[in-house]
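Sequence in, structure out. Go.
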Amino acid sequence: MTEGRSPRCEGRGNTHTRWREDGLMANIAILFCKRIQDHSCIACAKCHKAMDELQGEFSRYADDEIHLVGMTDCGDCPGLTVPRVKLLREVAANLGRPIDVIHLGTCVKLAMETAQCPIDFDDLQIMLERELGYEVVLGTHSY
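Output:
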């Protein structure tokens, strides 16, 4: 870590981004909608493109290096997202790959808006941020 810098980057908008010797690194995980993911985007290709090109919600990492720790589905309806995130956190920690930020994929956002998804983003965000310490971002890309 660079001398005098905190491991958390307060005031940058990425409060869970870690300092590295050569800059910042955001360790992210993406949750996708189990029901509509492969109907709106096969194999999360749009998320990967947006991440590589720093588009959509990934534009917030313009000065950072993005490290994709993992991707998993939401746990299916009626909304088993928190247990999925807890399991993902445990597996990632056992592999030495900590997660800083959880992105709910654009497919999850679409499911909430159009497919009667039972996830309430505000409640989920509070739960994941307060109980598990993650920054939570709704969406990944705009296409």
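Check: The CA atoms of residues 7 and 18 lie 5 Å apart. Strands lie at 18-20, 23-32, 64-73, 101-104, 135-138.
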